[in-house]
């Protein structure tokens, strides 16, 4: 098929593209990449396949391959491991530091109390880490879009696919910039389309 041929052209050989029966649970559309090496897999929701043309599906696939080619998945895995390691290290300090229990007037050390203190005091750290992660994720989405446009040579298909995904998933087209900064892991669809059009003009 055209999708398999495209994957071969960008040196991302696929034995198959898997279809998930997401329509049984939701009307939303999605696609994702998973696995490494020979076990790499691209999965498309059946709703996505039903609602998009072949060119648009290729654009979505190219976007997912872009995440792999740009090493976004590996970076996310490394950051996730480091994040988890730091969190457990801090947790070990929280449940063993007597000064913390004294500050809360707890006479004896308690794992349960330590967990509560950790949840209270780690939340601000997690909030700021989340801002960093969201910003990085939005940057990665722009890069994957750029990869898709460059390798397919079809910016209109990428833009049309984003429009349909946004409509079917009931996305907010004009969220407040502050809300995007605080909560969005993906840029708003209009900003992504604007970046695609800008790339086309520059190209």
Q: Mean pLDDT, rounded to whole units?
A: 88
Number of helices: 9
| Termini separation | 28 Å
SSE run? HEEEHHHHHHHH
Count of spatially separate domains:
2
- Secondary-structure-based class equals mainly alpha
Biggest sheet, strands in spatial order?
1-3-2
Per DSSP E runs of 2 or more residues, the count of β-strands stands at: 3
Beta-strand portion reads 5-15%
Kindly describe this structure.
With 203 residues, the protein is mainly alpha-helical. It has 2 domains: 2-57, 2-Layer Sandwich (Zincin-like); 72-202, no CATH class. The chain has 9 helices and 3 strands, in the order H-E-E-E-H-H-H-H-H-H-H-H. The protein has helices at 2-9, 46-51, 54-69, 72-94, 98-103, 111-152, 155-168, 177-183, 189-202; strands at 17-20, 31-34, 41-45. It has a 3-stranded mixed sheet. A hairpin with a 6-residue loop joins strand 2 and strand 3 (41-45). Helix 3 packs across helix 6, helix 6 (111-152) packs parallel to helix 9 and helix 7 (155-168) packs antiparallel against helix 9. The two termini are 28 Å apart. The mean pLDDT is 88.
Compact summary:
The chain has 203 residues and is mainly α.
Label this structure with key terms:
single chain; 203 residues; mainly alpha; Zincin-like; 2 domains; three-stranded mixed β-sheet; 3 strands; 6% strand; elongated
SSE blueprint and pairings:
Elements: H1 2-9, E1 17-20, E2 31-34, E3 41-45, H2 46-51, H3 54-69, H4 72-94, H5 98-103, H6 111-152, H7 155-168, H8 177-183, H9 189-202
Helix pairs in contact: 1-3, 3-6, 3-7, 4-6, 6-9, 7-9
